[in-house]
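OP here, attaching both records as promised.
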Amino acid sequence: MNFAQLQRLCLALPDVEERETWGDVTFRVRDKIFVIGSPGGEFISIKASLDDQSGLIAMDADTFAVSAYTGRYGWVRVRLRTVGADLMTRLVTAAWKRTAAKRVVAQFEAAVATSTTPAGGRHPQRTGERQAEGSPRPQTRRSSR
């Protein structure tokens, strides 16, 4: 991932504007920042939840870290060179959803759902989604304590 790719990801989302602030490029929705970085920089900071922040750092501490100053609110520092495009797309979209108006997010999600629905009208189950009622659940081993 490079900054130009990140820039395209951010600007492809509804109501996003790019503005220079504090010598860095910020991506905003209605004056609220959700990504900040520099075209020549190695890292960007992205808005996340505290739970997402800790999970990302636990997953890959070389790529993710607590952002300076805003880390206590969940912001994550991301090393662009080592983050995959799919993961970065999910992170940018999640940060945008945290920042954009609920109405705009709902319209975006409806448009995405319409454009990605297979011919049969049902989405395939995604990893991490709950199974339908009555579906067999994977059995987990319990300790004998």
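Record two, same layout:
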Amino acid sequence: MCSFLAPLLDESPPNSSRINLEMPSLTLLPHLILVLLLVIPGASEARSKKRSSRAKSRVELRTVETCPQTDSNQTVLIVKQWHLGPRTITKGFREKYPQEPSQTAIYNFLSTGVEKAQLDLVVGEGCEGEIGEKFEKEFNGWSYNELRAQPKNKKYEKILTQIPLKLKAKWTSKIHAVCGDNDEQIHNSTVSLSNMRGWYGFLTRFTEKPTTPEQKAEYQESASKLLGYSKVKPIEDLVPKIREKLKTELDSFESSLKKRNESFAAALKANTFTNAAVVIGGLHAKDLKEKVEELKLNCRVMEPINYPAKDEELIESFRRLL
């Protein structure tokens, strides 16, 4: 296995050292004086704080799952990301986003793979087709040609946009980048997720969140209308119907998710590679891993350290209510 795909974290303990209690020789005195000057009170503490701050801000990737080993010479990295919505504009670097550290870590890791010729293919979500000079879709306000003018920018690695788009703009012919998604199913899953959030909001307000009688009456009226009733229904009649709606939308969402994963798998099957990376939201990871296994490919599921599984937790909360 190539070095790019080797484990990223070294958890081995540091080597212990022994203290020499003997007096230093005269030839070592100049070195000893230099050491004493370097550890003047305050200087060492400042350096320590700087190193500590740098260590805290650094984010790395880790492997959380692997596919059963096969005889294939192809490996797929399924990289879980926490990304902004594609319509959020990130130009100007004026705003700090909580997604930036983990997105930068993913970009740097994959960029190293491209630089070392150890990554052949990168597959992105949110669009269809090959990424290159003729690719017109923008992510977070950034087009391919605009990114092409940015690689010398010291902040390029921190630009928040679709990672495969950013990799292709940086490395051009050194990496093959494709959008492996399904536009129709992206729309369907977005609508279903929005509807789930709405029905979930009604359920929690009727069953969990404390609300005033006035607020509860407003929610009753709204829910009754959305469910097609001509008159306001009692909460005990509304809750079972809302659960049914939530289940229908959850089933629709999961169906769209699986169809999108079929598109990612088809993109892998249609392209030649030794090492590929699919950069997707964490909700895709479990089913996509199964589809990669069906293709008899090796795989690793990776995520940034402290990856926030917000979407996964949201879907799980929907399931619990059902």
